[in-house]
């Protein structure tokens, strides 16, 4: 039989309220622990931001530590619609003139028109890549590809699909108009050495007549097969008057560091200029300054105390963060072994109040006019690590901070450990409170039961006394 229990019904005490208040006292340390946990999480998040920004500063410095960070170039064409140009970092500054007499072309052939859906006969087609000289064909180094044409079923569309699936170095399509349909075949690559020949083994016994599969053969001088609508041709151009030829309209190895795209034949010389891209260099320097300032702002905000709001930054007074800020600012004031520029301030990168870097445009312009000396300020090496160029120096500094045993990484690990301990402490408080609640309820319920028994005995005694008095 179920028992209905209501703590305190016998004694008249609010046992549940009493126990709840006592348990609340046991849980009192949780308030401080939860506040501490929030603070630790904020610190960890801030350190995560600092770590990311240190990494970004290291990346920006690393870019300036390498020659490629100082060798960006740009190329311009006086007629980009005819001659386009792209250039790699480090390409020498130069100026050339170029004329295009002929664009590279791919060989194209077309069959005679047949009624749409006509079966073209049976046998096989063999496609070879190579070079035509008059009516003579010299096969290239590739392997000829043979395609089987099935009995009575293969129309031009079927044959075109088989050619495209064969990876023979050509592409095929079917052209339809009022006269019927034609098979069009074209080399995938331009240039004289990428021409093609098509021979057939026609099951009708004649491989060169105007019937059956022979109609799709191609060789120069064969009037019964496909006709050539475009010969394979090399590009022909002159660079500063020197003739050049290319199988492709993209010249990627002709001039050091340059890729030239031929799009049109020209009627006048095209001027191509390759110059140092000083704006890209300025952008690299600015990216370095911006990365430092972003990190400096985060450190300043994390360490400050706001008098107006009476609130402290999440890392105020933290020795690790204070040390990092001081080391970072000291690094920006340090000296490298390069000459004539040995300090960042020499080229206009100046440390201002609050640790912010600013670029003096006048000084920077002057330094840009002495690009090799400016480059040395960031790229120079030295036996003394503290005297290396600022690119190397700050790159190494940043890497050291975020390495597994670095200052920032160690601080992050310490915060994670503190958060874990805090969580365990909260668990212990909750466990102790739960045990106390169970114990207190048991004790008060036992007391309530005892009071109930006494009340029952008292009522019985009173009743007996009343009965004795009546007798």
TrEMBL record:
Q: Where in the cell is it found?
A: Secreted; Bacterial flagellum
Per UniProt, which keywords does this protein have? Bacterial flagellum, Cell projection, Cilium, Coiled coil, Flagellum, Secreted
Give the domain of life.
Answer: Bacteria
Q: Report whether Secreted shows up as a keyword of the record.
A: yes
**Is this entry keyworded Secreted?**
yes
Q: Which InterPro entries match?
A: Flagellin_hook_IN_motif, FliD, FliD_C, FliD_N
Query: Where is it predominantly found?
Result: secreted
Q: Which residues form the Flagellar hook-associated protein 2 N-terminal domain?
A: 11-107
The Flagellar hook-associated protein 2 C-terminal domain sits at 232-455
Q: Which PANTHER family match?
A: FLAGELLAR CAP/ASSEMBLY PROTEIN FLID, FLAGELLAR HOOK-ASSOCIATED PROTEIN 2
What binding partners and quaternary form does the record give?
Answer: Homopentamer.
Describe the task this protein carries out. Answer: Required for morphogenesis and for the elongation of the flagellar filament by facilitating polymerization of the flagellin monomers at the tip of growing filament. Forms a capping structure, which prevents flagellin subunits (transported through the central channel of the flagellum) from leaking out without polymerization at the distal end.
Family of the protein in this entry: Belongs to the FliD family.
Q: What is the name attached to this protein's record?
A: Flagellar hook-associated protein 2
User: What is the originating organism of this protein?
Assistant: Hydrogenophaga luteola
